Amino acid sequence: MKTVLITGTSKGIGLETALAFGRAGYKVFATMRNPEKASFFKQQITSEALDITISKMDVDIDASVKHCMDDIIKKNGSIDILVNNAGIERHGSIEEMSMNDFQSVMNTNYFGVLRCTKALLPHMRKNKKGRIINVASVSGHISNSPLGAYSASKHALEAVSEALAQEVKPFNVRVAIVEPGIISTQMANDISLDGSSIYPNSKRFGGLFAASLEIPTPPSLVASKIFEIAESDTWKLRHPVGPDAEPFLQWRASLTDEEYVDWNAASDDDWYESVESAFGLNARTALGTNTSN
């Protein structure tokens, strides 16, 4: 029986990914910070008789990762697939966000992936087989205010995943990066519409998210892509997911850096109009207001 370990499975993409693998007959180790809050997940596991074990693991803490990984390896012997999904989002302007928030995002989204990867990689390398799937984001290529901290962590994850792929290919370990666009998760829905910042970007970008989520893309779509990658023989590194992912990436690639900065620094009226022209999204209406600067 194939085995998979997935981080951040309490909700959203992680939860759907665990269920997708479990329903396909995998032995799934689903990790999360607070298993006591996973009552709905536990009910699904029981009702569908899935071979899913929920384990407590905080990817932010070395000792927690080591304890959980050592226990799973001791009981199971090896893990065929690692899905590094755990992630958090903090948003705000560079000036106004606290250093604690910057550090928290990087600790979970980047260092958390490294902790888990380093714990399992020696076993995969020794066995000369394995797959590591890292859930990044379109934000790993496109940096928008007020998602500077989140984008930085995903850019870092993209870079280290690319380096890792080079190192482990001779050992028959495959690395893949999944790059979702705007997915209907709690994280996406929590993008603030607070207008209290001295910078307009937070409110404007919140409107873009709200407009996109009016036709939501479910996290199960990302889970399906992760499962597809795991089942395939592909060595393809990057996998954009969602109807807006590839268009966003292509649009950004069509602009010079200076044009992109100017686009984000435009007046409210010009910015809202350009969003509607480029993406067909009425970000202003999604905010519930028709006022302008």
UniProtKB/TrEMBL annotation:
One Gene Ontology molecular-function label: oxidoreductase activity
Keywords: Oxidoreductase
Lineage top rank: taxon: Bacteria
Keyword Oxidoreductase tagged: yes
One Pfam family named in its UniProt record: adh_short
Gene3D superfamilies, per the entry: NAD(P)-binding Rossmann-like Domain (3.40.50.720)
Family: Belongs to the short-chain dehydrogenases/reductases (SDR) family.
Protein's UniProt name: NAD(P)-dependent dehydrogenase, short-chain alcohol dehydrogenase family
